User: Fold Protein CcmA, bactofilin family from Methylophilus rhizosphaerae.
Amino acid sequence: MFFKKSVQIDSHIDTLVGHETQIQGNMHFAGGLRVDGQIAGNVIEKREHPSTLIISENGAVTGAVEASKIVLNGVIRGPVKSSVFIELQSKARIEGDLYYKSLEMHTGAVIEGKLVYLGEQPAEVAMPDEA
Assistant:
């Protein structure tokens, strides 16, 4: 009522990592990616395609994560970079530094690391330990 959500999350899902799925290795994606399973590796959007990453309550990523828009309700163990918007829902947990431009954090979400505001900086800010 008092404000309008300026960033809309694209709910279109192109790729699904299912609940019983475990992936070992880096993943590069475009469009919408939903993670309900486990990924051990970096999850990075293709730079020329702004994308949406959704990690559900059962989903987990161990590695660096980079996407334009991120909705997190699971766990990320590694640095996270969101160039447009990140929403941390109530069961979200980040064990690493968070680089963000716009942040929405629900009660119960946890960040064990630094918060680094990207502001109007160029999108090419590198995260430490990025492969």
The mean pLDDT is 89. The CA atoms of residues 36 and 66 lie 17 Å apart.
